[in-house]
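Quick look at the format.
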Amino acid sequence: MPKKNSKSPPKELIESTHAFLRKEGCGVELQVDLPKPNRSKMVLAPIANPYDVDPKVQFARHDWYATQTTVVPSDKHFSDVIGTEYRRWVPGDVIFENVRCGCGKTKSFLDALDYYKREQIKVLYVASREQLMRQTKLSVAKKLGSEYDDYPPKYLDPIETFDNFVFFKTYQGLAKIYEGNGKFRPDVFDENEKVVVYLDEAHWLTSDALFSSQPDHFLNGFFKQFLSAIVILMTATDWDCFEPITEAIPHTYKPKVLDGYECYTKEYPDVRYDKVYISAPLKLNADLVYFDEYEDLVQRINSSESKWLILVASKELAEKLKAEIQGAEIVYRETDGYKMTDSALEEKQNISLYERFNCRVLITTPILDVGTNVNDRELKNVVVDVWDPVQAVQFVGRKRGNDRFSLFFHNLGIDKVKELLVKRVDEPLQRMKELVEASDAEVSSRNDELAEEIKAGRIYSRNGKLCYNRLARKKLLNLRRYLRHVLWEVDKYGEQSLLAHQAELFGHTLGECQDILKETKQTKRNELINYLDSLEGKELGKEEYIEFCKKFDDLLTRLTGKKWHRGAVMHQEGKLNEIFAENGLDFAVKNVKGIYTISRNDE
């Protein structure tokens, strides 16, 4: 390993770099040092505290590369900022583009095609989803004036190249080739060819790794074939995908002179030069709303006439909501045992062709995370109920247009976050470790667990040996750090920290989050007080009192997040009066010969 260099870049280098950028008309400052850590970045250094998270280090980008960073201002499109800088990229460069949804990443790709064609540089475009690939093929065909520009989308699927210049392939297709130790079109992409590769929606590498080994196979083979290509990775959510990708890149390059000066790398001075474009979260034109119980959400939806788009983590929850919501339809990725109805398939096609849907409420799993845009002015409500921040940002990014809408988040609560950490992160990580490190005899005794892990893609066999899906493991480790950090902040700063992590993903501040939380709590408190007021003057028998206690407990739990009974639901009047006092409720209950009455204390 090269000797570490901990010195800061010379002041003269930074000043000359800024001067060069201003001369080139970029209009932005170039930071040679890493940017100040932002809590939306998801790589944490382990340190001793209750949740193994460093309170001083939040979500920081990997820092073994001191990367050149051009910050895209929130009022500019990425394609305007990058301009013609692609002309200065050279073979072996890896370009990271972390730019929010709808900010012009695809346009920057299309703008560069004329230059690539003139310079006889072949282009390979890689994407993960059918719909995204279709949209890009249509855009490229129109850009090049190709005969395919008026093809119906589905007829574009088998077309792999336009004019033997731009080539198209899915991550999954390349993964199958690399799994068999093959190469993609070796007759075209040989070592002597000038090649540029665009890896669109690069977060697929870690997002899909949780249920498939294909991303791992892709990464094992891709950089072996395209070692000397210019590689551009595009995503709006770089938090947990850039680190494993950079770890897979062979560290074999010498320093390069780019943009008129020699690059500086913090940890590995002889590693090749990377360029990262980032953009701060753009504050959405949205009103944030939180809900605690699905009952509240369903009631609000059923009393509304506007359109709703809902993201949930599982098909089972989607089916449950559909049964309770009027006029709802579900779109998800079909697998064995899950087949979409004809009406759902029709809605999926509507979104694909027209960027809108006809039903009033569309429920989906993360199938809509990439490659699908919804540009429907009737869509006024978007609900996000997933705990993975990458999925949340990608899903909300599907809504296009700048009209105002309401963005709903499910307030999971601390107990649910702890459960997710154990059941969805810690336990899978432990099983992976135990199975890969186990002896043959031990593995044989745990065949069911092994079959489950292989089906999930977290473990696979290579040359007769069990191997980690390293991208799945990296994703789970990052989610562990993220959830532990959330829990640590909640312990220190209170419940609003949990919601602030969601709000900050979309450019909203902690103060705004606190205001929303306060308003939400006041609404719930008013609902509880109104219910108690409605009972004033009424005499309740035993059965009626039991029903009252159930509803009171439900309303108070929604307000406080705390269960107020164990075992029997009925409260003795003394206990209930203590609960009233503890929660600042100016009411009292009296029991006279088995007849209960509720009244305000001042009466």
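Next, a different chain entirely:
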Amino acid sequence: MTIDLVTMFSVPWSKLIYLDISFTRVGRTVPPSLSNSTSLTVFLADGCSIEGSIPPSITKLKKLRILMLNDNDITGQLPQNNLNGDTPLSLFRKSRLDRISFGVSGLSVEINDQDQSLVQTFQPEILEFTSCNMRGEIPKFFSNLTILVILILANNSLSGAIPYWLFNLPALSVLDLSMNNFKGVIPPTIQLKSSPYPTIISLADNNLQGPIPSKFENVNVINLSLTNLVGSIPTQIGEVHGIRSISLSGNKIHGPIPESLCQAANVLQVLDLSSNSLSGTIRRNLSNFKSLIYLNLGENKLTGSVPKELERVTSLRYLDLNGNEFEGSFPTAIQKFQDLKMLNLAGNRFEGRIPKNNLSGPLPENLDGLKMMTKTQNQTTIFGYFYSLKFTGAQLEIVTKRQTRFLVSVCSYNTGFDVSSNALTGKIPEKIGLLNGIPFLNLSHNNLTGLIPKTIGEMISLESLDLSYNQLTGEITVTLTLLNFLAYLNLSYNNLSGRIPTNPQFDTLYQDGTAYVGNKYLCGTPDGMNCSNN
């Protein structure tokens, strides 16, 4: 749908109250004539490819309460005003705006701390200035915003220490300072005021230092990923009442996972401790997490086996244990995870067979017990809150299409199955074909034997299939040519034989010549070995 704002507002809309043109193809500037809509209280124009600057005439919209211009191509600074002073935000001095969002808009925002009169008349509830080229320290101006509920200043160039007074704002529920250049130590106690809204603290991806704060109060979501934190996980963190998400990935944390983290009364739904130096075993009382949806312990130094008690966490949808030193047989605990959407056990020392009968469900013989992997469309809502997943910092590392990908939004890749680089033996189960909702399957670098199941051709959502470095035998099943979305195939270094299947789409998968190397009895394209008539 294409909308011409200039034409649309060539006549006054004096009674227009609410205007939402988000994600429509506007592709023009905000016309000065918009100010003729004097009754306008809500203007939503996210993702509209709006260009140019914001016209100063927008200050005439005295009833405007909500202004959202996220994900556009707006440039320049907030318009200079004709009131007094040179503070761009003083544009809103006499406005009734209580929600302003310019995330990823290209706009530059500057705030003058000296303009005290602005504070007296401008008291918003929501401020979002993501990717707005903000520099310097956090303005003291924010300390006087007594009804501010949400403050998002992510992905700017803010620096200096994070001021302690930010955590004392009387109405603040969401604070996102991620992806800046803040330095210094995080306060030992992070305490927000009691709030009817979900409370979220995200300080991820900064240049902080020191230990993890030992005390959190009235915080539902904690994201301290990629902040250079050191030391061990404080035992008190498991005692935070109402904590829903803890993300501490990509730091320099060592030691065991504290037993106190797994409180019986815990309502935790997201736990990401990946890419640290944690040691020891997985706590058996992890089974206390009755609401856990996302668990990522990947890229640590954890040892031992995966405890059977983990099977009690039947709510799990994302499980990543890759890159540790786990050993023993393939963990049978996953048989209970009927809602599992993504599994990554790569880079451990698991051995034995992929369970044939342990993954039960409506068809209890095989892998079809992973019900969420049999659906082509899945959506996960963590907490049920609007701002939930955006701030958890939850991410997954997967290897698909020969590339390591970090999925920072786990909803962006519905499901997947990765048990590569272990010591698994036996045949690939026939019922694996029932997992027709997964876009990637990686069983590479194991000791799997037997034929490639014909049922893989029923995995209609597959985009990436890697069975390389096993001991598979027989012909490549022609059913693989039915996978219309397949963009990456690797069957190299097995004992496959016979003619390579061909069709126009399938032929594009081995143009680089690596999909079949190490299978000396294959014939046909791409290696040029002629197939006999037999």
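The chain has a mean pLDDT of 76.

See the schema section for token definitions.
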